[in-house]
Write a structure and sequence with these properties.
Beta-Lactamase; 5-stranded antiparallel β-sheet; 14 helices; 41% helix; elongated; disordered N terminus
Length: 382
């Protein structure tokens, strides 16, 4: 938003400077007399203003239109015969009675507001925002005869500013509601921004981390690893994903996952880093519980004397307990992926398949006694 505001201000300053130069030109074109302007012949200035890309209007003391250029006519949708001599305020700013009263008062005092911004009404009823630069016109005797105003239509600039403000508001709302943390640090690795969620995840309030070094939030080993990542980052290799254990200020330890994007300019100069942090403690603990459960199950199956075999729907062996080695002489990995029925005697295969089919259909439980080939060629009853 700062960039947008700066751009708009710059353009308005440019308008003011342009207007001052043109109004100076106006004074030069008019024949000077004792520091006042003689308006006996203003055709030269009319020609100078006619083709300008800025809006130009000249009003007399009563606020009636004595001249306007083509740019103003095109913007408002009027033709010159339709507005010549008409009251500017009634035609273009009918809803602002105070503006005409202020004009009349200032004309009486011989002054005018140098710069002013207001909305003018076009012929179609559309409102356009215009910034005006104004100057008082005097005749050869120094009497005020009217004003000349040079303006710029800033409607599009206002709309752009509103859109950026709305975008900024939306982004701020998103930042305030996301559960993940986003940290933005500059080229010196000083934190410039932190989402409010940094308090929930890391135990720091945003204002407590902004201005601090990224390193101040890490322990010695983490500082070493992060420093190495910074040194190795390049414009072509600038993203990293790491997991680490983090101790909050209150002493609680959490497992965090960090997505780190190192920022580089088009010339390849390091400009800073964006860090996304996610608390994955619950996921880590759940995965650890699964691993421990699997380990206990593995220890249990390793101690079993009976053989447990798991088949897929095609009859291929997917898992078999280590006890198969003592019972049949095979290492478990020798059997995984093989068809279980190839170890049956040919005369047993048909009735075994029928028994399996009946069990799958729920017609009767599956309980088999059959001969299984041992690795040494003998047969074992199972």
């Amino acid at each position: 938003m700062l960039v947008v505001a700066w751009s708009i201000e710059t353009r308005l300053w440019g308008l003011a400077l342009t207007a001052l130069l043109l109004l100076g030109l106006l004074g030069w074109l008019y024949r000077g007399s004792g520091g006042f302007w003689d308006l006996q012949d203003d055709r030269q200035t009319d020609r100078a203003f006619e083709e300008m890309a800025l809006l130009v209007v000249r009003l007399n003391r009563e606020g009636r239109i004595m001249f306007c250029n083509r740019c103003l006519l095109e913007l408002t949708g009027w033709s010159w015969p339709q507005i010549a001599g008409r009251d500017w305020f009634e035609l273009f700013v009918p809803e602002d009675d105070n503006l005409k009263a202020a004009f009349e008062q200032q004309i009486t005092q011989g002054t005018i507001m140098p710069q002013y911004k207001n909305r003018i009404l076009t012929r179609s009823g559309e409102q356009r925002a215009v910034v005006w630069n104004n100057t008082v016109l005097r005749d050869g005797q120094g009497r005020v005869v009217g004003i000349t105003s040079i303006g710029q239509d800033v409607t599009a600039l206002e709309q752009t500013e509103r859109e950026h403000l709305q975008s900024e508001k939306v982004l701020r709302q998103i930042a305030e509601t996301v559960r993940d943390v986003v940290l933005l640090a500059d080229a010196n690795l000083q934190i410039q921004y932190a989402t409010p969620s940094v308090y929930t995840v890391a135990g720091w309030r945003p204002e407590e981390v902004v201005g601090r070094s990224v390193y101040s939030l890490l322990d010695i080993e983490q500082q070493r690893i992060f420093s190495q990542m910074v040194l190795e980052a390049t414009p072509k290799s600038h993203v990293a994903l790491v997991g680490f254990s983090y101790q909050r200020p209150d002493g609680e330890r959490r497992i965090l996952e960090a997505s780190i994007s190192f920022l580089f300019s088009p010339e390849g100069v390091f400009q800073g880093v964006v860090v996304g942090l996610r608390d994955v403690t619950e996921r880590y603990l759940a995965e650890q519980a699964v691993r421990e459960s699997e380990q206990r199950l593995r220890e249990l199956t390793n101690s079993m004397r009976d053989v447990v075999m798991m088949l897929n729907p095609k009859g291929l062996i997917e898992y078999v307990t280590p006890s198969v080695q003592a019972a049949l002489g095979y290492d478990p990995q020798e059997l995984v992926g093989r068809n279980a029925f190839e170890f049956f005697e040919p005369e047993d295969r048909n009735w075994v398949l029928e028994a399996v089919r009946a069990a799958r259909e729920g017609r009767r439980p599956l309980r088999l006694e059959y001969q299984h080939h041992h690795k040494d060629g003998s047969k074992v009853w199972l």
